[in-house]
Inverse folding.
């Protein structure tokens, strides 16, 4: 019986996979964390319900526009330069969101952040598919999707849950359901 070994994955392919996974986590996290952040944003800017909706949905509108334009941008400038631009602009627009002095600046920054995310949703999977070795292509694309879902989970999980889980103390007795249940509500 002859066993075949799979071809070795190059260092560049591994870097591409890690970059794709990182973008996936960032995309998932950014798409999902607005729910918790809105509590602080609404208080900081004294937002009405309509303004909160605008802040929340502006990034989604930007994602749609970015996804529609992503292929054209990548074809014109190349996938690798587009991915570098996505990383740089994502950082800049995230900082701008965090440092926004007014509601107008926050909305513009979130729209631009959405554009960046939309472009990345189109460009990253194509770049991975083109750059990954044939034998690992599917695994790399799955890794990107799993990373995106992981980012969503991280973004929707309250920070105190992660701190308590890392500390290993589980739930305190005061957070338990009635004695008949052993489930914990934390």
């Amino acid at each position: 019986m002859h066993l075949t070994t799979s071809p070795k994955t190059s260092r560049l392919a591994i870097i591409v996979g890690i970059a794709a996974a990182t973008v996936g986590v960032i995309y998932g996290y950014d798409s999902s964390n607005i729910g918790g952040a809105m509590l602080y944003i609404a208080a900081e800017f004294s937002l009405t319900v309509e303004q909160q909706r605008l802040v929340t949905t502006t990034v989604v509108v930007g994602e749609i526009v970015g996804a529609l334009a992503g292929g054209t941008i990548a074809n014109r400038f190349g996938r690798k330069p587009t991915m570098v631009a996505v990383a740089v602009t994502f950082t800049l627009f995230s900082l701008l969101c965090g440092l926004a002095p007014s509601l107008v600046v926050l909305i513009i920054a979130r729209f631009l952040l959405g554009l960046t995310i939309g472009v990345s949703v189109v460009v990253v999977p194509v770049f991975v598919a083109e750059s990954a070795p044939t034998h690992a292509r599917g695994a790399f694309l799955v890794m990107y999707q799993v990373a995106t879902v992981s980012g969503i989970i991280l973004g929707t999980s309250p920070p105190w849950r992660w701190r308590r889980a890392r500390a290993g103390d589980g739930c305190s007795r005061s957070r338990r359901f009635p004695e008949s249940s052993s489930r914990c509500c934390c």
Remarks:
- The radius of gyration is 20 Å.
